[in-house]
């Protein structure tokens, strides 16, 4: 039954082997030359990913956790079960469709904002929201009811109980969920193609100019014919993989520590 | 956006907290509830907007081609009018590509997922089961663009191409395996998709098999069954609906996957019976042509998106309903 491990091992091996020679300081700090030429790097992509992810985190994580609080602390009622169900459904929406939706809603729709950092971040936030909500919900449910009752017993109101008792108790778990969502968001490519659109330059504008991201640049590098560009794509894959891996592993680690503390 | 929560308007008649004298204290609880509830409804608002916005955007195309005409048409010729639909838009080649790649993926991944889960839950010693299930989880976290890169530049030339040549040599007379072999194509995309959906299916099937009562298995073993017979005749029938749900969630993933398919399917607008042939899936066609598309053909791409959304929603909702009725959500939102 090593079958399940083979693909991961192969991917890790190949991405490391071909990527390790490419990644250096220049790779992070310089923009990409034309695909034929060697050297340079994905500075534009890294900056764009950082920018987009920062905005997406601000948009998705507070709302996700608040939704989970509503579901766990004020449910179950008809509204919370609807929210739960549709959150589940939302995890299954194709990412390309999220891109089309944000394109239709913001890029050409209301206001006609055009391509840019912000609309890209909205698309990523929509992808992340259900992940944050579902995992936060699980974590809030792990908080024992005795803690809530003790808080009420001391005369705390419901909101005080939630803010000062339940959320701190669930904090490590909430961190896990948020980090898993970030790990997912970093690697998203398809929705960004339709919203941030991509560029090879470092773009600092909030909205209105096409913005780049590592996965998009990776995709374009991998699908053009020149060897130097493909090599850089392997380098980007290594960086992306390490980032996603770091977030996933740290998230699991925080999560497992939290669950051993809770019991 | 995130600043709107605390500034919510106060409800007129706060019925709770009347024992506390300060009006500020009395307002706090309903206010807080109102704030988190409105955050919660955002999900519903987003979904509603999604359906509304994309459908209205795509409506002219459906109006011109007819819904079924759009789905079954084989011609895709973009026009470049700004106000009306002048091209011909038929999504069948892309629908075909989506169905074929997703079917290949399920056919390969489902038996594998069942065997891996059975091994993880029943046969593996603990010190192997833990790292193995961890590996499967990590596989789920790998971004699809990395699958695409790896598939295109390593897996395809080193593994798939020799395999395809062998397949063509042995089964070349059969219409599914007719040459020429281009490398990229339906089968390549389908096989990489199978690897990508393996984790989510394994995660759910494992949960389903794990709750299967141990007494039944022990009874079967006591009657002299082999492991295979236990899996085939005892565990699988009892876990059938869960396995169906897992297959459907995997199918939903496979139908909607974009980047990896885009890099491996070849991106042509034709379709043909041979699995070695190149084509496009619905999602990959949207991503491939969106950048250079005219406003008019972006409308048509939106229509493909709506069709894709409908199919994946039906598949997903059915799967979720089955999982919910089993009452065993995996609890892992990441998968």
From TrEMBL, chain B:
Pfam families: BPD_transp_1 (PF00528). One of its GO terms (cellular component) is plasma membrane. SUPFAM superfamilies: MetI-like (SSF161098). Residues 1-22 are annotated as: Disordered. GO terms for molecular function: phosphate transmembrane transporter activity. Its main location: membrane. Part of the binding-protein-dependent transport system for phosphate; probably responsible for the translocation of the substrate across the membrane. Belongs to the binding-protein-dependent transport system permease family. CysTW subfamily. This is Phosphate transport system permease protein. It comes from Nocardiopsis eucommiae. The gene is pstC.
């Amino acid at each position: 039954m090593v079958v399940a491990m083979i693909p991961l091992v192969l991917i890790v091996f190949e991405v490391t082997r071909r990527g390790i020679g490419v990644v250096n300081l220049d790779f992070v700090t310089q923009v990409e030359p034309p695909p034929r030429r060697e050297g340079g790097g994905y500075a534009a992509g890294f900056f764009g990913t950082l920018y987009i992810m920062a905005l997406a985190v601000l948009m998705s994580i507070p709302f996700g956790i608040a939704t989970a609080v509503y579901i766990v602390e004020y449910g179950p009622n008809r509204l919370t079960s609807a929210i739960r169900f549709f959150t589940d459904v939302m995890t299954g929406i194709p990412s390309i469709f999220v891109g089309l939706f944000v394109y239709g809603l913001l890029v050409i729709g209301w206001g006609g904002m055009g391509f840019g950092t912000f609309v890209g971040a909205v698309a990523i936030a929509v992808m992340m929201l259900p992940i944050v909500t579902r995992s936060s919900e699980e974590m809030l449910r792990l908080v024992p009811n005795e803690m809530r009752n003790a808080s009420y017993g001391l005369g705390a109101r419901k909101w005080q109980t939630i803010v000062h008792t339940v959320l701190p108790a669930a904090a490590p778990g909430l961190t896990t969920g948020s980090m898993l969502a970030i790990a997912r968001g970093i690697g998203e490519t398809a929705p960004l193609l339709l919203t941030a659109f991509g560029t090879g330059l470092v773009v600092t504008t909030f909205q209105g100019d096409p913005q780049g991201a590592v996965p998009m640049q990776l995709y374009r590098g991998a699908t053009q014919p020149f060897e130097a560009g493909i090599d850089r794509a392997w380098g980007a894959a290594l960086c992306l993989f390490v980032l996603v891996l770091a977030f996933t592993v740290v998230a699991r680690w925080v999560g497992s520590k939290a669950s051993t503390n809770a019991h | 956006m995130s600043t709107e929560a605390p500034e919510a308007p106060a409800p007129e008649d706060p019925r709770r907290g009347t024992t506390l004298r300060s009006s500020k204290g009395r307002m706090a609880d309903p206010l807080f509830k109102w704030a988190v509830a409105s955050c919660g409804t955002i999900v519903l608002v987003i979904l509603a907007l999604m359906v509304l916005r994309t459908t209205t955007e795509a409506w002219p195309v459906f109006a011109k081609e007819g819904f079924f005409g759009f789905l079954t048409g084989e011609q895709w010729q973009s026009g470049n009018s700004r106000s009306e639909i002048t091209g011909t838009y038929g999504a069948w080649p892309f629908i075909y590509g989506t169905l074929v790649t997703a079917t290949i993926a399920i056919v390969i991944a489902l038996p594998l997922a069942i065997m891996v889960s059975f091994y993880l839950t029943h046969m593996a010693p603990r010190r192997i089961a833990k790292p193995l299930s961890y590996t499967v989880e990590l596989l789920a976290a790998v971004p699809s663009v990395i699958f695409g890169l790896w598939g295109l530049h390593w897996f395809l030339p080193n593994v798939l191409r020799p395999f395809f040549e062998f397949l063509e040599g042995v089964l070349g007379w059969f219409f599914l395996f007719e040459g020429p072999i281009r490398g990229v194509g339906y089968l390549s995309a389908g096989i990489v998709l199978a690897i990508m959906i393996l984790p989510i299916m394994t995660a759910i099937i494992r949960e389903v098999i794990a709750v299967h009562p141990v007494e039944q298995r022990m009874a079967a073993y006591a009657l002299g069954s082999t492991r295979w017979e236990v899996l085939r005749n005892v565990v699988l029938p009892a876990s059938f609906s869960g396995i169906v749900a897992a297959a459907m969630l995997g199918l939903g993933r496979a139908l909607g996957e974009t980047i990896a398919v885009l890099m491996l399917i070849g991106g042509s607008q034709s379709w043909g019976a041979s699995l070695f042939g190149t084509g496009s899936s619905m999602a990959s066609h949207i991503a491939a042509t969106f950048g250079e598309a005219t406003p008019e053909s972006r409308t048509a791409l939106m229509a493909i998106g709506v069709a894709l959304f409908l199919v994946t929603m039906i598949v997903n909702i059915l799967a979720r309903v089955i999982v919910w009725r089993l009452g065993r959500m995996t609890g892992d939102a990441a998968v």
